[in-house]
Amino acid sequence: MAAASAPSVDTPRISTLILQRKTLAIGLAIIVAITLLAVLAPLIAPYSPSKLSIVNRLKPPSSTWFFGTDEFGRDVFSRTIYAGQLSLLVGAAATALAATVGITLGLVAGFFRKADGIVSRIIDAMMAFPDILLAIALVAALGPSLATVIIALGVVYAPRLARVVRASTLVIRELPYVEAARALGVPTWRIMTRHVLRNLVSPILVQATFIFAYAMLAEAGLSFLGVGVSPEIPTWGTMIAAGRQYVGQADWMTIFPGFAIILTVLSLQLVGDGLRDLLDPRLRKDL
Amino acid sequence: MTRYVLQRLFGMLTVMFTVVTIVFVIVRVAPGDPAAVMLGPDATPADIEVLRVRLGLDQPLPIQYVYFLAQLARGDLGHSIFLDMPVASALLDRAEPTFFLTIFAILIASAIALPVGIMSAYKRGSFFDQAVTTLTMLAASIPSFWLGLILIQVFAVRFGWFPVAGYGGPDASFLTRMSHLVLPAVALGVVSSALITRFTRASMLDVLNDDYVRTARSKGMGEFRVIMKHAFKNALIPVLTVIGLTAALLVSGAVVTETVFSLPGVGNLVVSAVLRRDYPVIQGALLVIAAIYVLINFGIDLLYLMIDPRVRY
Amino acid sequence: MAMSTPNADNHPDALADDIVLRAEDLRTHFIMGTRTAKSVDGVTLTVRRGQTLAVVGESGSGKSVTSLSIMRLLSHPGRIVGGRLLYRMRDGGVVDLATLSDKRMRAIRGKEIAMIFQEPMTSLNPLYTVGDQIMEMIRLHEPISRHEARIRARRMLELVEIPAPDKRLDQYPHEMSGGMRQRVMIALALACNPALLIADEPTTALDVTIQAQILDLMRRLQREIGMSILFVTHNLGVVAEIAHEVAVMYAGRVVEQAPVHDLFARPRHPYTKGLLACIPDAKRDRAEDGTRKMLNPIPGSVPSVLALPAGCAYAPRCPLAEAHCESVPPDLLNASPEHLTRCWRHELL
Lengths: 287, 313, 349
Hints:
CATH topology of chain A: MetI-like fold
Subcellular location (chain B): Cell membrane
Number of domains of chain A: 1
Structural class of chain A: mainly alpha
Radius of gyration of chain C: 21 Å
Number of strands of chain A: 0
Oligomer: heterotrimer
Largest sheet of chain A: none
Strand order of the largest sheet of chain C: 6-7-8-3-9-10-12-11
Strand content of chain A: under 5%
Helix content of chain A: over 70%
Low-confidence stretches of chain A: 1-10, 282-287
Number of helices of chain C: 11
Number of helices of chain A: 13
CATH class of chain A: Mainly Alpha
Order of helices and strands of chain C: EEEHEEHEHHHHEHEHEEHHHEE
Protein name (chain B): Peptide/nickel transport system permease protein
Mean pLDDT of chain C: 86
Distance between the termini of chain A: 25 Å
Low-confidence stretches of chain C: 1-10
Radius of gyration of chain A: 22 Å
Helix content of chain C: 25-40%
Main location (chain B): membrane
Largest sheet of chain C: 8 strands, mixed
Membrane topology (chain B): Multi-pass membrane protein
CATH superfamily of chain A: MetI-like
Organism (chain B): Aminobacter niigataensis
């Protein structure tokens, strides 16, 4: 009995738990730093990201231009931190959309036997398309723009979340307390949101972190191909695409935006892994 | 066994049918008139109307869907107006670089991932294991197109060991063509080795403590043989699934990598089709690539049959 | 008398002719960071030629770790940290298994000492036929062809009374019942004619009728082949059926070793006495009015191997314990020439 009441007393504060996980703490620190750099870019950037300077074109990294300059003499460092704004925005928005669609589909499939057949089949079929390819096709169909890239990536990654949510819902809806709630006549939507969804916070959080990482990689790929956001808008993908013409001549144009992507995706994966470690013991038992 | 195969076959066909439907929907959700978009702003209304009729766009959607299915059933993927050739032939023309690129990348990825994953699991918690865990996470964070550019910088531009881009021109020998695939295959292989390494490690960890592994040791067998013959073979099934999945993902990774290296493959074809709104080609490529994914998965299901006797009954 | 003072003579050849294996003060610890689980902490026991020694104890007493130590099959972080495991090879030479090189140990596993495990359902590799797994064992140790190995494997299946051996050779483990699989494990273990068979709870996972069949089979095979058996079990009923001698383990030590009749007739350790009192016995446990008497479980619980008491590990639960017992761990004493006990007060029993 002591064990049952203990957690509320003994549970360490969340902050302590996070700090105990080295990977989670490091990942969070990096992603917060990157986000701050991007958001505060107007204050931090030494130059305007779009200020042209033909005399200073293709200058290598130096104390004047930390990351060098591009073919129009624009400061690569300033552009890299500004580009973070859009890259992170696209990743976050796509993840939010994927989460909304995925959770809804997953709950519906897990809860209503009749819908499960169709929804599961659509999920399976969606997963048959490689993510970038499906995104390309969707962007092509909808016409390329910032919004369509977000929509396309959201649609591409929704099935992954739907699958996780569906599997967990199937388990949770058979649990005694959910059955009891149903027997007591609690409305289905209330059971889904109150009892099921609350138990799904952990797996959704972990999965969403990884989707954030994949979506950022995919966005960079789309922008690199020129089928994503307009090449004039600086994102890490478009910057690398621009640098491609100057490989061997101005390598810094590709290297630094690439580092930005790698660091961001890596820190998101560290967070996802750390979260999974933190939350998994219970997950594994429940699922 | 027959039941297992039939089950998988049926599963494959339902997924494929859904895939076809999704592709149909994606291409039809395009805002505006595809015919007008395809012909560009200079087209006369009469031209657009001709194309609409030719593409069957003047019909109601359900009729279009039935036509679409009937066309596919005949093995016809449609006709590209821009290329003025059947989509199937266009894809086939571009298949070689993509095919070999995917094969090489999978070979490179497996050659890295399997030994490293096995060793990492075997030496669990060691410095090596920790280094592998960190490096796989790093590798999974690298965009393959960026790695491709770096490889070009180092090995093609600076050292001149490999060609910078292209496929060697129309008269290139097979060997020359393949030499153009080395760097892109490395770029794709390294990035996709991360996932396979992680899975190999995880599924080896699952089996290393199994009782039959201990039995194998109790026979007086050397460690290498215990690990490879008894543990690894049992760990192989989930690993194969991931390798198959990766192979399918590589086809799409190839879309981007082919652009970096200017390889005239399927990926390149898709990108240019998107840029000029060549819907029949986009549609055909989507279908073929999804079909390859579904087929690879079916193939892996059949491989299980060969590896695991329990599936046969 | 060398047995009561096991470290008196460190020369391996000190092993008497009729002894196959003697563990002397074996210590196997699991070192996890700053904590050390002393799962086996001073085990001394003797297996005689052609006889069965049953090692009895509750779960966590260290009996399985002892058998895995002998085979040197401990999984990380378990390690033999002290003591000797003297083994007489079939050619007469004596080796210390605790310090043998990995390579020489591999030559001993399977050929000199073989092992069968508790879980027949999972101890065979699901991906290979039963025949392949037996043939693999034979061909590891003997330079014979596949064809000859197959004939030998078939003979082994006959030996363990598996019907239709030709058909069974080509079957996979999942096509067999648990009892059948344990027969296969025995066939596998005996395929290279080992001098010592270690059986780690081989019947625990089986139901009672199958259990009796397997015990019969092992007894018969021992008569015919003459190997020695180290039989690990927690079941005193099984001990009575199969053992010549018994070693009782408690908290990582052998607290008593004696011939089976002596031990059952007059246990010389209070723990053994407590264990025997727990066995349901139709005659003894009926009260005069015919109702069943309550069993007598030993009060208290086994100490954690992470924190063993300074003196006798059983002292906290022992009705005979006195101050001396709690401070000084008892030596292995001779209660009679063949009866060893780790109890200061065994005279009182």
